[in-house]
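Hi there, hope your week has been kind to you so far. Do you reckon you could talk me through the fold, stretch by stretch? I've dropped the whole record in just underneath, so have a look:
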Amino acid sequence: MLETKIPRFQLGMTQAARDDTSGTPDDTKQRYGLVFPQYKARENQPMAKAFASQADLSEKYVTFSRLSEHAYAFTAEGDPNSGVVVGDNAVMVIDAQATPKAAQAVIEKVRSVTDKPIRHLVLSHYHAVRTLGASAYAADNVICSEATREMIVERGAHDYKSEVQRFPRLFQAADAIPGLTMPTVTFGERMTIWLGKLQVDIIQPGRGHTKGDTIVWLPEERTLFSGDLVVSQVAPYAGDAHLKDWPATLQALRDLHSEVLVPGRGEPLVGAEAVEQGIAATQGFVEELFHVVTTSVAAGETLKQAYDKATAALHPRHGKSVLFDHSLPFSVARAYDEAKGLDHPRIWTAERDLEAWAMLEPAA
């Protein structure tokens, strides 16, 4: 497995950009109107934890690994992964990254192994942090499930503002984003693309992380790109999830018997045992989260009480996982809604983000 590493902040940047320290995450929030009245009112009040990933400003290292004859993984210490499939006549990228600047880092890695054109970009699901770098690829086809397109239309603009506020480091150079990423090709349950003689299956196996989750499967190489249906050493995010359905969808992934799995976040899982461990760990977190919250709802407890119980139950095993502190308030809020019978996840707006955080993580 070939690997190369470089500081993520420096990928896709000119020397002048590397030397420029004038921009800050606060500049990005101001530029996009993301400092809302609710946030200003709390600026001088202490909070138990920094909001979402606003304190995660440390440099990450990118690893670009060849996993099978045609498949590569672009990973960065728990940041969103991208997959790369190099076919006989073209390249497919799975998940675009947050901005065109971040996408350029993936393109540089692609160009280190091939000069074939990037013709296909697959969105494993809709979250802004994975899709808004799409314009950098100039791909002929931007592909997603019909359910993912519905999510973009319904909540794309809200999610854009929400995630810029949650992930200021990942949205550096956000001013280069031309707008929401819209697909040029959608599908129902599955489709197949042939990259020359290489078969690439694009499948919507069921609801889980979102209602539109899509996997990319190379059957000849038993290599699977799972999107955020599976994560590795990262706390699953369930803010837009269908928690009751997620385990059955993971079983559909198991039934493929993959030898390599590229998760949505975290390092690639190589070998059948590692693949099963990754799937089982994700499923265990999801099931425990939903069980704790469902029990709280059945007892008539408040969202805050459910959150405190979920934190107590999950923290001993998962508290040091990437994104645990960031994601748990949003995941518990969604689990609470689903346990009360709300099948369709409520939209996360930047304002709702802050209100939920203030309720569940009040000042110490």
